[in-house]
Amino acid sequence: MSRITRRHRQALRLAASFIAPYRWQALGALLAMVITAGITLSIGQGIKLMVDQGFMTRSPQLLERSIGFFMLLTVGLAVGTFARFYLVSWIGERVVADLRKKVFDHLIELHPGFYENNRSSEIQSRLTADTTLLQSVIGSSLSMFLRNALMVIGGIVLLFITNPKLTSIVVVALPLIIAPILMFGRRVRNLSRESQDRVANVGSYVAESLGQIKTVQAYNHQPQDKQRFSHTVEQAFETARKRILQRSWLITLVIVLVLGAVAVMLWVGGMEFPAVSWQRLCFTR
């Protein structure tokens, strides 16, 4: 565990060193995420204001004011989303471009013996496919995680203001929901990494076999290569099947836990609603 944690810390430090030259863009993206999260949480209040002051009072002035406030939130959300998406995607592409240049500058200076022990096709795959995956993590997954974290924190604060009892239930339920999700998520992540390695092995074997096709045919080695390639492909398929199975369990678990927690919250909220209020609601109808 300590070795994994140390490895993660080294990876985070390396990523931070590449992001550091673009700190102003990162701060702008973070500010845009905070603004969009705040506006998203405020849209419900804007709709409530539009219904209460606009439709219920039947006042044209209040209706225009509430609709204007709602449109202001909409424009702010659109502008903030544009800034967030552009800046985060730009940072992801820029970091990957810098990383590729630095890795290539290092590879071009290595001793030829390094390339005798390491296949050039696998190095090429690491330099292209793996860095593209890193770009999707920095440019998409990381921003989505931060935005959702801000939304959760803001939602809990608003819920605490509205109903402290329900908030306490949410705070207790969150670890129970997140713990199994993290467990399955770690399995999916490990299997995704293994699946990527298997696919890289398939590509490397194809490149080596076809690159030395004259030697393969000269020694009549086609049957052995077919068998070995079939075994490599089946290994990649089996790893992908395990990854798909774990991901399916993860999706199922998320649906059951999240909707189950919502059902419990609705039950608690319904039980708190006084019976007298139910009777009044029925009489008003």
Overview features:
mainly alpha, 285 residues, 93% helix, 9 helices, single chain, ABC transporter transmembrane region fold, 2 domains
How would you describe what is shown here?
By secondary structure, the chain is an all-alpha fold. The chain contains 9 helices and no strands.
Give the second-level CATH assignment, the architecture of the largest domain.
Up-down Bundle
> Into which percentage range does the β-strand content fall?
under 5%
CATH class of the largest domain reads Mainly Alpha
Structure summary, number of beta strands: 0
Shape: elongated
- The protein's oligomeric status is single chain
Domain count: 2
Unreliable residue stretches: none
> Rg, please?
27 Å
Our count of helices gives 9
Organism: Pseudomonas syringae pv. coryli
Subcellular location: Cell membrane
Pfam family, one: ABC_membrane
Transmembrane segments: 26-47, 67-92, 144-161, 167-185, 249-268
